[in-house]
Amino acid sequence: MKLAFLPWLILFLPLLAAAWIMLFTRANRCRSAALSISAVVLGFVGTLTFVGANGFHPVQPEVSVTWLAVGGLDIAFGLRLDALSLLMMLVVTGVGGAIHIYSWGYMEEDRCFSRYFASLSLFTFSMLGVVLANNFLQMFIFWELVGVSSYLLIGFWYERASAADAAKKAFLTNRVGDFGFLLGILTFWGLAGSLNFEAIKEWMDNGIGFGSTDPIIVQSGLTLAGLLVFCGAMGKSAQFPLHVWLPDAMEGPTPVSALIHAATMVAAGVYMLSRTFFIYTPDALSVIAWVGGFTALLAAVVAVQQNDIKRILAYSTLSQLGYMVMAVGVYAPSAGMFHLVTHAFFKALLFLGAGSVIHALHHEQDIWRMGGLRRRMPVTFWTFMVGTLALAGVWPFSGFFSKDSILATAQHHSPALFVLGAAVAALTTFYMFRLVFVAFLGPERTSEASHAHESPWVMTWPLRLLATFSLIGGVLGIEGLLTGFYDPVGSEHPNGLAAQVFYPFAHAPVAASVGLASVAAGFLAAHWLYRNVAEDPLPARIGALSRWMRNKFYFDELYEATVIRLQDTAATVIDWFDRWLVAGAAVRGTAGVTRLVGQALRLVQTGSLQTYTFLFVLGVAIVLFAVLGR
Amino acid sequence: MNLALISHEILLLLLGVGVLLADLWLPAARKRSLGYVAAGGVGIILLVSLLGLLPGTVGADPTAHAFGRMFVLDDLALFFKRFFLIATLIVLLMTVEFADRVPAGIAEYYSLILFAASGMLFAASANDFVLLFVSLELITVTFYVLTGFARSRTESLEASVKYLIMGALSSAFLVYGIALVYGMTGAFNFQDLAAVDAPHLEDPIFLFGLLFVFVGLGFKIAAVPFQMWAPDVYQGAPTPTTAFLAVGSKAAGVVLLLRVLFTAVPAVAAEWAPVIAVVASLTMLYGNLCALPQTNLKRLLGYSSIAHAGYLLLGVASLTQSGQAAVLFYLGGYLFTVLAAFMVAAAVLRETGAEDIESLRGLYHRSPLLATGLTFSMVSLAGIPPLVGFFGKFLLIQAALAAAAAAPILYAAVGVAIVGVVVSLCYYFGVIRAIYWRTDSTGHPLTPSMTARLTVGACLAGIVILGIFPSGLWESARQAVATLSLN
After folding, report:
1. Who among B166, B290, B470 is closest to A612 (CB)?
2. Contact residues, chain A, for B470 at CB < 8 Å
3. Which chain A residue lies closest to B211 (C-alpha atoms)?
4. Nearest-CB residue to A598 (from B290, B395, B470)
5. Pick from B211, B290, B322: which is nearest to A71 by CB?
6. What is the ipTM of this complex?
7. Helix (H/G/I), strand (E/B), else coil: A371
8. In percent, how much of chain B has pLDDT > 70?
C-alpha cells in the first residue's frame, strides 16, 4: 500500500490544530481559524491523494500499530481503510471543510472565536476516529469523544441557559444509548474474544464457540447483542425513543448544526450500523427497520407544524436518519450509506442556507417573520432551492437517487415499510415547500426581512459548492462503489453518466414512479395551502392534531413526567444515602481515621537522632527475628 | 582487564576533575556557568552511549566482565547507566538554577554531583560485594557533603549530620554483613555466591550476614524500618541534592538490590519474597500516611519517596521478569516526574525562601508553565492515566497479581498498594489545590529562566510521552532484566 502514513496524518492533524489553538493562538483569531481550516482541508486533499494512489479498495485494508503489549494483554491501535471508511472520510473532511470555511464568516463577531475553532477541530478528529476505527473499543472511545465535542459545541453559548440545557440533554441522552452500546460491545468481547471487526466477522461466519448448540438460544443471544449495539446508533443518530435531543441541539451556532446535526455526528450511528452490518440477525434487522421507519414518519409529521427554520430542518434530519436506519434494516446498508452521503451534501447546504438567512436577519429564526427573501438574497435562495429539491427527491437531484434505492429495497423486502417510506417522502416535500413559500416567497412580513442583505462571499461560496454536489451527488458513482463493497460479485451497476441518470427507472420503475408521485402530491398540497398566506392555515383545519404536532407529540413532557420524575426521586434517595452514609460515615470517617494515624505516626518522627538510631536498630532486630527466629 | 568497559565512568570522572580544575582559574562571576559545561559534558556522554559509540555498548559480548569479574557491563547495567546520566544532566541544570543560594564553592558542588554520579554508574555494574560496598560508599560520602553544602543554613547542617550518622550506622551493618557472608562462603563474587547459595540456605550465619547486607540497601532506598532519615534529610538538604537523592541514590539502591537478590542469592530471594512483600506493604503505608499532614513541600516529597520505595519493592517481591521490568519502568517514569517537581520547587521557592505548600498559592497565575509542570508531576505521582505514573503502577500491580497465585501474600500487598494510592491522592491534590484554587496570592508574576523552562518542558514531555507511548521504555526494561536469573 502506498502512502500508508497519510491516514495517520489526516486523523491527527485536527487534534494537533485543536491543541495548538487552545495552547498558543487563542488570542489570534485569524491564525486559529486558518489552523483549523487547513487541518480539515489538508485532510480532504490527503484523502483524495490516498484514494488516487490506492483506489477505494487498498490491497491491505488495515494498518495497525501495537500500542502496548504486557503479558497476555495486547492493545493495538488500528485504522480500517476500505471503500466505506474512505468514502466517509471524504464526506467528513469535504462537507466539514466547507462548513469550517463558512464558519469564518458566520462567527466573525463572536467573542470566543478561537475556542469555537478548537472545538470544531476536536470534533473533526473524533469523527475521523470513529470512521477509521478497526475495532469496537477504539470506535467507542472516539464515539464518546464525538459526544464530548458535540457537548462543547452545542453549549458553545453557555451563557444562555437554553444552550447549556440543550448541551446537557444531548450529552445525557447519548449516554443512555452509549450504555447499551457498551453492553453490546462487552457481549461481543465475551462471545467472540476479540473486538476487531474482521475477527468478529470471521467468528460469526464460522459459528463456533457460541457457548450453546441450541440454535434458538444462539439466535436470540445474537439478536440481543446486536440490538444492544444498535442502542448506540439510536442515541447518536437520534432514533425514537432517543430522538428528543436533536431538535434542542439547534441551540448551538448554525454551522455547528450543519456539521454535527446534519452531515457528520448523527451519521455516525448509521455508519456504525453499516460497518457492523454482519452482526445483525434477521430479527434484529426487522426491529432496526421498524424503529427507523417509525422515526422517519414521526419526525416528518412533527416538522409540518414547526415555525423555527432550524427546527424544521432538525426534524427533517431526524426523518431522513430514520430513512437511513430503515435502509440498513431492509438489508440495504449500501442504500443507507448512499443516502447518508447525499443527505450530507444537501442538509449541510440547507442548514448553511438557513444560517445565511439568520445571519442576514440578525438572528431571527421564525419563518413567519421572514418572507420575500428571494429578491434580497438570490444566492442563498437558489442554493436553498437546490437543497430543497434534492431533499424532496426530485429527479435528477441527488436525493432522488438515494431515496429511490431505499424505496426499491423496501418494496422488495417489506411492502408496509415501502408505503410508509412513500408517505414520508410526500410529507418531506410538503414541509420543505411550506418553508420555501413562507420564508423566501410572498411578501416581506417584517422590516428586517425587507432590509436583508446577501451574506459575504466566505459564506456564499460554500453554499454554491454544496449546491453543486447536491445536484450531481447521485450520479458520481457512489452507489456503485457501495453496492460493490457489500456484494463484490453480484453487483451490476451502470457506469456511464446517461445510464446512471436513468438507472432507477430501468431498475425499479414502481419505486421511482411512486417516489415522484409522492413528491408531486406534497408539492401540490403545499402550493395549495401556503402560497401567499399571512398565517398558517393548518391549525384551523386540523385543530387538535396541529397542536399535538407543534408540541412534538408531547415527548418532552412525557419524559419529564416519567423518566425524569423517576430519576429525580431515585436521585433524592441516593443523594441522602451518599451524603450521610457514603460521604459522612464512610469517607469522612475513613479520612479522619487515616489522618489521625498520619498525625500519630508523625510523632515517631521526632527529629531526634538518638530516637532515629534506636528505631533503626530496633527495626533490624525485628526483621532478624521475623526471618531467623522461626 | 578491559579498561574500555568502564569508559562511561572514566569520562564522567575526567569531567568532574576538569570542572574542579577549571574552578582554579575561572573568575568568580563565571563559575556558575561551569554547570552548563558539566551538563553539556554529561549530555555528550549520554549521547555517545546511546549512539553505541562507547566500547561495549553494542552487544559484542552481553556480559562483558572487567577487574576479575568485579565489574559487569550487561543490559541491566547499561539501562541504569543511562538512567543515571539523564538524572545527573537534569540535576546539574537544576543546580545552575539554584546556584545563587549556594554561598561558595559552586564548582565543587558540580564536581561532587559528577563524582556521586560516577559512583552510581559503578553501582550499576557491580558484580561483587567489594565493588558494591565501594561504589555505595562513594555515593553516600559524596552525599554527606552535598547535603550540608548550604553551610549557612542550620537545617542543611543538621540534615547532613543526621545523614552522616545514620549512613555510617547502615554502612557498618552492610560491611559486617559482607564479612559474615564472605566468612561462610569464601566468595565475594555474585556468580560464585550463586553456586553455593542453595547449600547455605539453612545456615543461620550466612542468612544473618545477608540480612545485614539488605539492611544497608534498605537504608539507601528508604524502606521501612530504615526510613527515618529520609524526611529530615530531604527537607534540610539543598533542593538539587534532595532531587538527586530521591532519584539517583534510590535507583542505585534498587539496582544493587536486584543484583544481589537475583544474581548472587536467587535461592534465598525465593525464600524471602514474603518478607519483601511485608516490608513493601509497611513502606507504602508508612510513606503515604505520614505524608498526609505535611505542610512542607520537600518533606512531603520525602515521605512520598518512601511510599514509592514501597511500590518498587512490590515489583521486586513478585520475583518475575515482568515484575523487575516494571520496577525499571517505574523508575524511568519516576525520574522525570520527581525531577519536574523539584525543578519547580527550586524555581518557585527560591523567590520566597519558604518551602511551604502554602507558598505555591496562585502559582497558576504567576507562572502557568511551572504550575503545569508541578500539576502533571503530582498527577503522575498519584498514578492517574494517561501519564507515566499510571503505567508504572499498572505494570507493577499487574506483575504482582500475576505472581500472586504462587505467593498469596502478594494479594494483601496489592490491596495495601491500592489503599496507598487512594490516600496519596489526598496529599498530591492538596498541592494542586494550592496551585489553582488558592488565588489569594501576593506574589508577582514569575518568569523562570530559559534553563528552568527547558528543563521543566523536557520533564513534562517525558511524563506525557512515556505515558502515551509506554512501549519503548517497557521493551528496553524487559531487555535489561533478561540478564537476571528469573523465570
Report:
1. B166
2. 68
3. A624
4. B290
5. B322
6. 0.89
7. coil
8. 96
B404 in reach of chain A (CB within 8 A) = no
Q: Which of A75, A587, A188 is nearest to B398 (CA)?
A: A75
CB contact under 8 A, A594 and B292: yes
Give the span between the Cα atoms of B215 and B195, in whole angstroms.
23
A507: closest CA among A360, A376, A401, A597? A401
| B154-158, Cβ contacts within 8 angstroms, sequence gap of 24 or more | B155/B235, B155/B236, B156/B236, B156/B237, B156/B238, B157/B236, B158/B232, B158/B236
CB atoms A623 and B225 under 8 Å: yes
Contacts of A591 in chain B (CB under 8 A): 426
Residues of A whose CB is below 8 A from B469: 67
Distance from CA of B184 to the nearest CA of A (A): 17
From the list A285, A152, A140, A284, the residue with the least C-alpha distance to A225 is A284
Closest-CA distance, B55 to chain A, in angstroms, reads 32
- pLDDT of the residue at A462: 83
SS (H, E, C) chain B: CCHHHHHHHHHHHHHHHHHHHHHHHCCHHHHHHHHHHHHHHHHHHHHHHHCCCCCCCCCCCCCEEECCCCEEECHHHHHHHHHHHHHHHHHHHHHHHHHHHCCCCHHHHHHHHHHHHHHHHHHHHECEHHHHHHHHHHHHHHHHHHHCCCCCCHHHHHHHHHHHHHHHHHHHHHHHHHHHHHHHHCCCEHHHHHHHHCHHHHCHHHHHHHHHHHHHHHHHHCCCCCCCHHHHHHHHCCHHHHHHHHHHHHHHHHHHHHHHHHHHCHHHHHHHHHHHHHHHHHHHHHHHHHHCCCCEHHHHHHHHHHHHHHHHHHHHHCCCHHHHHHHHHHHHHHHHHHHHHHHHHHHHHHHHCCCEHHHHCCHHHHCHHHHHHHHHHHHHHHCCCCCHHHHHHHHHHHHHHHHCCCCCHHHHHHHHHHHHHHHHHHHHHHHHHHHHCCCCCCCCCCCCCHHHHHHHHHHHHHHHHHHHCCHHHHHHHHHHHCCCCCC
Q: Which residues of B touch A76 (CB under 8 A)?
A: none
Structure-block grid coordinates of residue B390: 499510571
Q: Touching check for A595 and chain B: CB below 8 Å?
A: yes
CB < 8 Å to A68, chain B: 470-471, 474
User: Is the preceding peptide bond at A7 cis, omega within 30 degrees of 0?
Assistant: no
Burial state string for B410-424 with b = 16 or more CB within 10 A and e = fewer than 16:
beebbebbebbbebb
Judge if the upstream peptide bond of residue A241 is cis by omega within 30 degrees of 0.
Answer: yes
Given an 8 Å threshold on Cβ–Cβ distance, is A70 in contact with B395? yes
Residues B75/B62, Cβ–Cβ less than 8 Å: yes
Q: What's the confidence (pLDDT) of residue B333? A: 94
- Predicted TM-score (pTM) of this structure: 0.80
- CB under 8 Å to A296, separation ≥6 — which residues? A318, A319, A320, A321, A322, A323, A326, A420, A421, A424
- Residue A531 confidence (pLDDT) above 90: no
A72/chain B closest Cα distance in angstroms: 11
In the predicted structure, residue A35 carries a pLDDT above the cut 70: yes
Mean pLDDT of A319-330: 89
Mean pLDDT over each residue of chain A, to the nearest integer: 83
* Minimal C-alpha gap between A147 and chain B (Å): 20
DSSP string, A584-623: IIIIIHHHHHHHHHHHHHHHH--S-HHHHHHHHHHHHHHH
**Cβ contact B228–A627 (<8 Å):** no
Hey, are the CB atoms on A623 and B275 less than 8 Å from each other?
yes
Instruction: Report B:120-179 residues touching A (Cβ under 8 A).
Output: 161-162, 165-166, 169-170, 173
